[in-house]
Design a protein that fits this description.
The structure holds two protein chains of two kinds. By secondary structure, chain A is α/β, with parallel strands linked by helices. Chain A is 42% helix and 17% strand. The longest helix of chain B is centred in the first third of the chain and has 31 residues. The chains are: A alpha/beta, B mainly alpha.
């Protein structure tokens, strides 16, 4: 019995290897006739698998819509998606494989600054354009890369600018006097919170508590207790997801109610966020977001409806970022009429692209130059409150009501 | 002063929850010398199972323990029979490799079933506390501690008062001798592994109320749980309780008075210090390997 299994496994292995090689050769030979292949490695398992899965669905919807409308340069688009298991070393070998072995025509980026940091270096080395749907950490842009483009409206430091501006615009007697800044030790969340802190401190709001907690933190009771003891009026947390939900739960348990509560990322995961803290408790929570399902931007309606039809839920922000990223690359390829990486790079540096996330444009280092939207949970749904011309709600909930 | 007492209370409560999570792990190591990395995967699996029971059947997660415990018992039995029984004669380190591989496989299977979406179980008490004077005692943690006491007492009684328990202990202390007096040590091993895994039914239930859970959550627990049983003395139930409470308090005190950065490092420091000073742990005993083996 055991022997038979071993023999069977050996046969399967040999056949599979043969197929892989056959596939590889076939792809190598397809220069102009076959589909345009787009290579991507995403964290589909492991710690970052939540945004990774969303991004995959966003890319898939993009390819489906594009192929339905005749494809790119008259050719169909084929996505070649690998799983990097949320590992920095796996993603390096993944992109190397996509470029040198699979010989993909185009690349698209992955999720989180953590993974985009090494992945973009591989692309740069091979002179391949690398448009990324995430990865706004400051150090991503200080390496002098020319093929890197971050396809969200603004880099991390400026993500919450509209929030800081709103807080400081409050009349002096209502404005929060003290603030607490807990943040996850993450290259993406930290700069957002530091950006807020710098602006609010300059505006006279005293910092009474700040801490950086490691990514593996599960126990937020003590952080909540310490913030309560500090008596902060405003809390701005650099959260990814689990940590954002956990800190709010811990605040609820000790009945601590800040007047203003801002979190990065976590509140944008609409369904999972509201079921995690209780939908009544979402009232008044702020977050900055690159995209909204209601926004009147190119293809947004089609994207939202196709996504909903395919996956049975509203697309999360991460999926929209992936879709917008692919749109940016698509615009450049169409404009230059080929997959020539240098031409695409020059075109993206020189032009503004219109995507589901609105307008995107980049400086020489690939930093985006536009602004994030400020969103707030109101009556069980997220609303855009700033900027005014894109807002979906005219009012702002302030102060945040007590937990229920 | 109030903050100090509150911090220690929170530490003891979360320590109680950790003891519940670690109880089955220490049993399996103590009796079988298997470092069971899969334990964390089973906890997350039980938590997701609790989510299904709670969201579909509207059964309180604490009551769901009555369903998840037997389910996890059979999951443990099956896992042992299909995989772990095959490496029983291999060195202990092989069990780490095998159970780690199993944990990854289970993570993948859970990812296919439940997708990479966070699930939260939110019964009325999930965000409430008992208030005693100026102190807040989060209800979910208090219930978790209660469940830990029940599970640990049940395990203790099982091991010391029943025939099956005596068979388990004798086959751990002297397998050849146990075999000689007619104990079927293969069945006993499967039973032990199944009982250890069954404890994740209660652990998973409390986990689902305390945290939003998704398949990869298991990685947050592997080292934490191993730290607890190393400190307490691998294989000792009272040791697991002492280790868990000590680490819970150390974690909250460090988080409040030193920094959050250090709070999660405490576990690794504890493992290092214990290995240097008292390799058998607080309640462990030094076995004379030359005679036993």
């Amino acid at each position: 019995m055991f022997k038979r299994i071993v023999v069977l496994c050996a046969i399967v292995a040999v056949v599979a290897t043969g197929l892989v090689f056959a596939g590889g050769q076939q792809q190598g030979g397809s220069q102009s006739k076959g589909p345009i292949t787009v290579g991507i490695s995403l964290p589909l398992t492991g710690d970052l698998s939540q945004p990774g899965g969303s991004a995959k669905r966003g890319y898939e919807v993009w390819a489906e819509l594009l192929n339905k409308n005749g494809g790119l340069l008259g050719r169909q688009v084929k996505l070649n998606i690998l799983d990097d298991a949320s590992s920095q070393s796996t993603i390096v070998s993944d992109y190397n494989r996509l470029i040198t072995q699979d010989k993909v025509d185009l690349l698209l980026g992955t999720f989180s600054s953590l993974l985009n940091f090494p992945a973009s270096a591989v692309a740069e080395k091979h002179h391949m354009v690398y448009v990324e749907p995430a990865g706004g950490a400051p150090k991503i842009f200080t390496r002098g890369f020319k093929y890197l483009f971050f396809a969200q409206p603004a880099p991390a430091v400026h993500q919450a600018d509209l929030f800081s501006k709103w807080v400081l615009s409050l009349p002096a007697n209502e404005r929060p006097k003290t603030a607490a800044y807990p943040t996850r030790d993450d290259p993406f969340t930290k700069p957002v919170i530091e950006g807020i802190r710098a602006k609010l401190e300059a505006g006279g709001i005293k910092t009474v508590y700040q801490t950086t907690y490691p990514t593996t933190t599960t126990n937020f009771d003590t952080i909540a207790a310490a913030i309560k003891a500090s008596g902060a009026d405003l809390v701005a947390e650099g959260a990814v997801f689990q940590d954002g939900v956990s800190l709010i739960r811990s605040m609820q348990k000790i009945n601590y109610n800040p007047k203003v509560l801002f979190e990065t990322s976590a509140p944008s995961e609409s369904q999972q966020f509201s079921s995690g803290i209780g939908v009544k408790n979402t009232q008044g929570i702020f977050y900055a977001v690159s995209w909204s399902p209601q926004a009147n931007t190119p293809d947004n309606k089609e994207f939202v409806s196709t996504y909903k039809e395919k996956f049975g839920e509203l697309p999360p922000e991460d999926a929209a970022d992936a879709f917008g990223t692919a749109q940016a690359l698509e615009a450049a390829v169409k404009a230059v009429g080929s997959t020539d990486q240098n031409k695409i790079k020059d075109w993206l540096h020189a032009h503004t692209v219109n995507t589901v996330e609105g307008k995107l444009s980049w400086d020489q280092a690939g930093r985006p130059q536009e602004a994030f939207l400020l969103a707030q949970w109101q009556n069980g749904a997220s609303q855009i409150v700033f900027p005014k011309d894109l807002s979906t709600s005219n009012q702002i909930v302030f102060p945040k009501p007590n937990w229920q | 002063m109030i903050q100090l007492v509150q911090t220690i209370l929170l530490g003891l409560l979360i320590g109680g929850v950790y003891a519940l999570f670690a109880s089955g792990l220490t049993l399996i190591f103590g009796v079988m010398e298997i470092v069971n990395v899969t334990h964390a995967a089973f906890l997350v699996f039980a938590a997701l199972l609790t989510f299904e029971i709670w969201s579909r059947l509207h059964i309180d997660p604490l009551l769901a323990i009555l369903i998840t415990t037997p389910v996890m018992f059979f999951v443990g039995w099956g896992t042992y029979r299909l995989t772990i029984s095959r490496i029983r004669s291999a060195p202990v380190s092989m069990s780490v490799v095998l159970t780690f591989a199993l944990a990854i496989a289970i993570e993948g299977a859970m990812g296919m079933t439940w997708k990479n979406v966070f699930r939260s179980v939110t019964p009325s008490y999930f965000n409430q506390s008992f208030n005693i004077g100026p102190f807040d005692l989060p209800k979910a943690q208090v219930y978790g501690c209660g469940a830990a006491v029940v599970v640990l007492v049940a395990l203790y009684l099982l091991l010391s008062k029943t025939w099956a328990g005596r068979a388990i202990r004798s086959s751990s202390e002297n397998p050849q001798g146990a075999q000689l007096v007619g104990i079927d040590i293969k069945t006993v091993a499967a039973l032990t592994f199944a009982i250890g895994t069954a404890t994740t039914g209660a652990g998973g239930s409390i986990m689902s109320v305390l945290y939003s859970v998704f398949p990869a959550s298991l990685y947050l627990w592997v080292s934490r749980l191993l730290g607890i049983i190393v400190l307490g003395g691998m294989g000792s139930l009272p040791g697991a309780v002492i280790g868990a409470l000590a680490l819970g308090v150390a974690e909250t005190l460090t988080s409040t008075y030193v920094s959050n950065q250090w709070a999660v490092v405490v576990y690794y420091i504890v493992i290092l210090v214990v290995l240097l000073i008292r390799p058998q742990g607080i309640m462990g005993f030094k076995a004379r390997q030359d005679v036993v083996a």
